[in-house]
Backbone:
């Protein structure tokens, strides 16, 4: 399925929650993302995969407002959010994590999550209950009083997710949160996302290299290569696509 | 945290009673401690909580002092009303500095330099500001000191002691309240990582401005106190960069970003420096700059042996988990 077909297919369903159309971004003449389009429907879990340097994180940063696109439109829940400030994008309902974790190092795990919990409210109790729920759903409850600086890298990754979750997003952007996790930990996190998706209808767009997680989670997959979407479809379709095998997974790839 | 709360109440009780037994000199030392505890607390809101380094806080002390003193002297404006004006002017000044810096992405060292620059050119401006006496100084009418006139902030040093105590308590409570709420959380998030704060929904620009405004407003109160306690103001003294450094020493040595650090730091530093002064006077030696050397040595030692300040070191020993106070309504 080509990107045009994929777009047509989602258009036939309801209007997508997130609709990225023809977005490009260059850094000093180097095209990081080139007329990329993707869409995520309400309640979907969509993965964005591709080799290192393909432009996945750049595309994320464009959606989350950390970067402004040179061209193209980004619509979220019907509103154009291209070039909008990150805190406004968050306020609109998009939570994100960072590939290179950015914990609030001098604050506890609970306090980190509470920062997210204060989205749209100054009610401390509400912020706290949101944060506690996020920590529980990621099995971080017992670590809530530890300073974030004392966490291991996998736990910092989970804290990234907890902080984003505490903002109670409608769309969650996950940037390689399973990298470096052991297989059992990956499975736990996959289970947590499935639960959030099933019980709360949380929509998720994730960048991931861990194919085990992609296959288990994603209903649809986009493949980015040299800044362009080269394939999209179900995990099975994508992983058997010759272009994807050649550019990313390798011809001997199994999962 | 019950234990620290009880300790605080005990300390407050002592502070309420103790001045009655002090002579004039010791009373003035106590006033200095409380004054520095309060200004340190105000500076700490900006640096300790929100991570924005100001090296020019004497600017707000001076502006607050001159505003209230000039209104009182020239127009007979009640100092309590003058205080409102002083806070307003300092908040406005802070807004200008904050807007200039944060709108154009100036942070860290460059922001600190900007705060010095504003304090310095304000000092030079006041040196030539004839309406308030220029470099010759500005003097408030001194009245008999045995009459206590709280309404006009005239009276015995004991009255100023209790005013300083009220300021210190107010500063502590305000800081504790700030830390508990959204402002405090957002400030600390900005201090730790601006980009992550933004992604978590924090309007970083707006909250940095809030931090600067709150800090400046609090410092303005200290300025008003300064004016009516000392009755004379010289630009060369009040706006000078050494004053700005003096302000930040207590929280740095006590513990940046903590609630008790500024208080502890002020107590330790003022006591030691006054002690050294007293010793020197007794021994009959006159050593110019002894105080400055002492400050330098104290700062050096603190940074070498307790880089996070005295309070965190003590808190660890006493087994306090943390003192940002997030444990009282645990479910």
Residues:
């Amino acid at each position: 399925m080509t990107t045009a077909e994929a777009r047509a297919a989602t258009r036939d369903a309801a209007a997508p929650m997130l609709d990225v159309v023809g977005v490009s971004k260059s850094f000093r003449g180097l095209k990081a993302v080139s007329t990329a389009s993707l869409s995520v429907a309400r309640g979907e879990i969509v993965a964005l995969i591709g080799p290192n340097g393909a432009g996945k994180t750049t595309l994320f940063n464009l959606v989350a407002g950390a970067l402004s696109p040179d061209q193209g439109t980004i619509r979220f829940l019907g509103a154009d959010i291209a070039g909008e400030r990150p805190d406004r994008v968050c306020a609109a309902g998009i939570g994100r994590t960072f590939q290179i974790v950015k914990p609030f190092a001098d604050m506890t795990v609970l306090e980190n999550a509470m920062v997210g919990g204060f989205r749209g409210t100054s009610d401390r109790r509400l912020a706290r209950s949101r944060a506690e729920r996020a920590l529980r759903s990621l099995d971080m409850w017992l670590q809530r009083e530890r300073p974030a600086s004392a966490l291991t890298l996998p736990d910092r990754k989970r804290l990234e997710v907890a902080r984003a979750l505490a903002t109670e997003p409608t769309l969650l952007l996950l940037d390689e949160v399973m990298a470096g996790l052991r297989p059992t930990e990956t499975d736990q996190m996959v289970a947590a996302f499935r639960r959030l998706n099933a019980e709360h209808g949380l929509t998720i767009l994730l960048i991931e290299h861990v194919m085990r997680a992609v296959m288990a989670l994603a209903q649809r997959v986009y493949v980015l290569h040299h800044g362009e979407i080269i394939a999209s479809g179900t995990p099975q379709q994508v992983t058997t696509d010759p272009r994807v095998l050649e550019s990313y997974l390798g011809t001997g790839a199994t999962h | 945290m019950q234990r620290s709360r009880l300790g605080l109440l005990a300390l407050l009780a002592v502070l309420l009673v103790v001045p009655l037994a002090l002579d004039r000199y010791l009373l003035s030392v106590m006033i200095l401690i409380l004054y520095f505890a309060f200004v340190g607390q105000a500076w700490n809101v900006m640096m300790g909580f929100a991570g924005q380094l100001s090296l020019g806080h004497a600017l707000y002390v001076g502006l607050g002092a001159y505003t209230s003193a000039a209104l009182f002297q020239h127009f007979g404006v009640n100092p309590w009303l003058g205080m409102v004006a002083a806070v307003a002017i300092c908040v406005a000044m802070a807004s200008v500095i904050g807007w200039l810096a944060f709108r154009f992405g100036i942070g860290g060292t460059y922001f600190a330099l900007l705060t010095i620059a504003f304090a310095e050119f304000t000092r030079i401006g006041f040196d030539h500001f004839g309406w308030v006496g220029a470099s010759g100084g500005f003097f408030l009418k001194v009245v008999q000191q045995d009459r206590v006139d709280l309404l006009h902030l005239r009276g015995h040093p004991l009255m100023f002691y209790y005013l300083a105590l009220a300021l210190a308590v107010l500063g502590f409570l305000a800081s504790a309240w700030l830390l508990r709420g959204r402002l405090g959380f957002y400030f600390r998030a900005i201090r730790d990582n601006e980009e992550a704060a933004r992604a978590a929904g924090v309007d970083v620009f707006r909250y940095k401005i809030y931090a600067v405004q709150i800090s400046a407003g609090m410092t303005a109160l200290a300025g008003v106190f300064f004016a009516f306690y000392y009755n004379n103001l010289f630009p060369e003294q009040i706006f000078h960069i050494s004053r700005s450094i003096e302000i930040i020493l207590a929280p740095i040595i006590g513990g940046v970003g903590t609630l008790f650090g500024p208080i502890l730091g002020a107590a330790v530093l003022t006591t030691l420096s006054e002690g050294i002064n007293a010793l020197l006077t007794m021994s009959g030696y006159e050593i110019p700059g002894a105080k400055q050397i002492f400050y330098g040595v104290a700062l050096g030692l603190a940074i070498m042996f307790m880089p996070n300040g005295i309070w965190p070191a003590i808190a660890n020993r006493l087994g306090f988990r943390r003192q940002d106070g997030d444990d009282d309504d645990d479910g």
Remarks:
- Chain B touches chain A at residues 180-182, 185-186, 188-189, 191-193, 195-204, 257, 321-322, 324, 326-327, 331 (CB under 8 Å).
- Residues 204-230 of chain B form the longest helix (27 residues).
- Chain B has 14 helices and two strands.
